[in-house]
Specification:
Distance between the termini: 105 Å
Number of domains: 3
Shape: elongated
Number of helices: 3
Largest sheet: 8 strands, antiparallel
CATH class of the largest domain: Mainly Beta
Helix content: under 10%
Structural class: mainly beta
Strand content: 35-45%
Radius of gyration: 34 Å
Length: about 425
């Protein structure tokens, strides 16, 4: 009984260990992820580098018989074609550095060897900076220009069968995995600083037996082999995903949080909704975000204009631009802030039909006798019922500071009825 309990505890611990790995552990260390899933950009690199590649020769992308996702590459023997991802300093792992390179492969024949991914600074691709090849049915990993390791007899590769082949250098040992199983290892000090792009397929100058004949999918390169808390085996298990393969996604965290919003139009301390824009159709708002963010302002949640000032986490100043002002009577302003992990928008309630300025002229009354004040373009204006020049905006209100736009007509059309009649009183 005690033995069963102990085994159960060990099993649970192993489960916790495996499931502790997530995309957020893997993605920051990806320097190449070629999944072929973008139908319009076949050679897209979805790693942190976004170091997109290009075809040389015939485009071998296909959307059929892939291991995972929407696309993969099917290379053909005796044909000079490959995918190249430009050289990048991030591929220089250094003396005694760590790295991991992995691809899903499905061979069309068993010719020996078949090179399917490498970083190569030399003419002969077989002796590249590092190279992965299908050889002896078990795979081969060249990890230091001329030093290589063949896979053992575990999980041999089969023609027409998808397998994940992974080469690892952990700083002291070179290891080769077939699927999720360690196939062979050797102790050796490697230096992987030499220059060169990363190639899928073959990069032979003349056709020969080193060309890859088959399908490739979900090729990744990482600048680590393990972390202080995650072992190489756990990484292998995670990307192998019980044989289903896994595309690593960028972690998505909460978008920026917008807070402490205040309007500066017209009151610089107006921090309560609805914000009185004072008739200002290009109002300014101050606010803060909890993370670095670039922020925008707009009069709807689809049309944005970059703020006049953007800052890191802290205060932002957003002004509705004169080229895209609010419309009269608008009751919403939208703030949109984009961070590295997504974006969000806040809907602010405003009253844009209020006018600013000292409109204190009390010499006008409605026929009903209610006290009113009148202004044109924020300026107190004498106005009688015969006025037809209404170029600009007019406002009427029963209380100082509270006005309603009753006419706005740049074409000098007769006033709307809700502005008239007026009579002058002494």
């Amino acid at each position: 009984m005690k033995k069963l309990i102990l085994l159960g505890i060990v099993f649970l611990i192993s489960l916790v260990s495996v499931f502790a790995v997530s995309d957020s552990d893997i993605y920051p260390n990806l320097v190449l992820q070629a999944s072929g899933d973008n139908a319009s950009q076949h050679e897209q690199d979805t790693s942190v580098l976004a170091n997109n590649g290009a075809d040389t020769g015939t485009d071998r992308w296909t959307d059929t018989n892939c291991k995972i996702g929407a696309g993969c590459w099917e290379f053909v023997d005796n044909t000079a074609d490959w995918v190249a991802f430009p050289d990048n300093a991030a591929y220089d792992f250094g003396a005694n550095g760590q790295y991991l390179v992995s691809c899903w492969i499905s061979m069309d024949d068993s010719n020996d060897p078949q090179q399917f991914i490498d970083r190569n600074g030399k003419i002969d691709p077989w002796w590249g900076v590092w190279t992965m090849a299908a050889t002896l049915d078990a795979g081969a990993f060249t990890y230091d220009n001329t030093n290589y390791i063949n896979g053992g007899t575990v999980s041999w590769l089969k023609v027409g069968q998808w397998s994940m082949v992974t080469g690892v250098y952990n700083g002291t040992d070179a290891l080769i995995y077939i699927n999720d199983t360690l196939s062979n290892s050797v102790t050796h000090t490697a230096n992987v600083d030499s220059a060169g792009a990363i190639y899928l397929g073959q990069r032979r100058q003349t056709v020969d037996e080193k060309e890859y004949d088959g399908t490739l999918d979900q090729c990744i390169v990482m600048n680590i082999s393990h972390t202080p808390t995650i072992s190489t085996q756990e990484i292998i298990d995670y990307i192998y995903n019980s044989g289903d393969a896994r595309v690593i996604s960028a972690p998505v965290a909460a978008p920026p949080v917008i807070s402490d919003v205040c309007s500066t139009s017209p009151d610089p301390d107006d921090c309560t909704e609805p914000y009185n824009t004072g008739g200002d159709l290009t109002p300014t708002f101050n606010f803060t975000t909890d993370v670095d963010a670039t922020c925008y302002i707009g009069d709807d949640n689809a049309t944005w204009t970059v703020c006049s000032t953007t800052t890191v986490a802290g205060e932002h100043i957003c002004t509705e631009p004169a080229t895209h002002p609010l419309v009269f009577g608008a009751d919403k302003v939208y703030l949109n802030c984009s961070g590295t992990d997504g974006d969000t928008y806040d809907e602010l309630n405003v009253i844009s039909t209020y006018l600013s300025g000292n409109v204190t002229d009390n010499s006008y009354r409605l026929i009903s006798g209610a006290l009113v004040t009148v202004s044109k373009n924020n300026t107190p204006t004498i106005w009688d019922s015969n006025v037809t020049d209404v170029n600009g905006y007019w406002a009427i209100g029963a209380e100082i500071g509270f006005y309603t736009i009753c006419a706005y007509d740049p074409d000098n059309i007769t006033l709307r009825g809700d502005c008239t009649p007026f009579v002058e009183v002494d």
